[in-house]
Structures are given as C-alpha cells and as structure tokens.
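Milestone M4 deliverable, item 7.
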Amino acid sequence: MKNSLRNSLILLHFIVFIYGFTAILGKLITLDAIQIVWYRMLFAIVGLFIYLRFKKLDISISKKQIIKLLGIGIVVALHWITFFHAIKISNVSVTLGTLSSGTLFASILEPLFFRTKIKRLEVLIGVIIIAGLYLIFRYELQYVNGIIVALISTVLATTFTILNKSFTHKVAPSIISFYEMIGGFIGISLYIALKGNFNSQFFEVSTNDLVYLLILGIVCTAFAFAASVDVMKVVSAYTVVLSINMEPVYGIILAFLFFGDSEYMSSGFYLGTIIILLSVFCYPMYKKRIGQKA
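Output delivered:
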C-alpha cells in the first residue's frame, strides 16, 4: 500500500509538471491561440476516445447532460484560447503567476452558482491575493494586456471547474472531458468557419509545431487527464488540490530553463506571485486542520 501511495504521488507530481509544461508549448508553437486550441482539442478527442475504448466505458448519457457538457466545453476552449493568447502577448511567468489567483474567483463565483454563503476565510484569502495581484500589476506595466487576458482566462477556468461540480457525481470524469472536448472543438470550428479562415494556410503546420501539438493534445491533455483519474483512486482530493498549486512553480522554473532572460521579471512580480502562492497553499492546509478538529 505504501509503494502504491508513493508511486501515485510521484505520478501526480509528474502530471502537475506536465500541466506546467503546457505553457512552455504554448510559447514554442508558432500558431495563434485559436489554432493551437483547435488542434489541441482535436488530438485530445482522439486520445480520449482511444482511452474510453480501451477501458470499455459506455459513453451513453442523457441528451440534456450532453448539451450541458458541450456548452461547458466552449468555456474550456475560451479559457485555453485566452491562456495561450496571454502567453503570446506577455510571457509564461506573467500568465502562470496571474493564473494562480483562481482561488480568489472561486471564493466569489462558487457561492453565486450554488447560492451558498460567502465564507469569511475565503474572502480574507481573496484580499491577500488582490494584494499579490496589485504588486504584479504595479511592477509589470509593460505586460498589463497579458495580465488582463490571463485574469479573464482565470475567471473562465474557475467557471468551468465550478460547472463541472454538478456532473462529477453523475458522470465519469473521462466522459465529461470527452464531451467537453467535442463541444469546444465544434464551437471553435464554427467560429473559424464563419470568419472564413478554414483555408490551406490554416492547415499549413510546420513539423516542429505538429510535434508540439501532438504532445499538447495527447500527452498534456488526454494522458494527463487519464492518469489523474487513476491517481485519485489512491491519493486524497486534498493532496491533489495542494499538488496542482505547484503548476505555476514548475511552469515558471521551466520557462527560465527554456527561454532564459525573456522570462526574467522584477522583484515586485516575484513578491506578488509568492504572496498568491502562499495564500493558495495555506488555505487548503488550514481548511483540513479545521476539518480534523471538527
């Protein structure tokens, strides 16, 4: 059992490392954000379909659930588009540093969606995160557009995470992702078609970009998701949440290794990012401690 737990924890951190690497691929791929997400979702659909067939899972769910999941998939697509666009117009460090503020938006949006009381502790964490964001904004004015787009991406990520909560106890997570990838892919395809951008140039992808896109769609999306489902059979939800908070840390370290000086930021940026990350880490730890006392 100890070996199983240890192996699952190693796999979990490898998955989080892969999530952090997603931002690096977004910077390396020369295509625009919409093209990146279109290909990512296409390859993810293929990867998830193979996974579902291999596991012999029945993907039959009600029409109402399918429609809702397809709609959430469009939100996922918008999150990824804004995420990659933020990287393109700023850099990996700024995007991931801003994205770590998701706890703030969750503390506001979750009570609104589920009509529950706003918790004082979550409001306090939110205020601390705002202070961290203020420092990032104050010292990185040259990246203000990237920060704003990254904030929009964070709100979208929080939104689809909250919306998914109503399905997690009814539908298998792999099936949820499969239909959401289809929904996002259809939504993006319609947009591109209406803009008249489905031309030969759209499908002209360099060999390097194609390799990066395959890694992004199959390894960073389909594999990472499938592996995370298996991990959660052994590791507690608390450990998963806490470990996922390492994504910006891994991503920023990788950005330094890949892009060097272009990722160097001011001391104010790092101070603001550390404040946000400490808030995000301390919140679940405090929550677990309170739960144990109760």
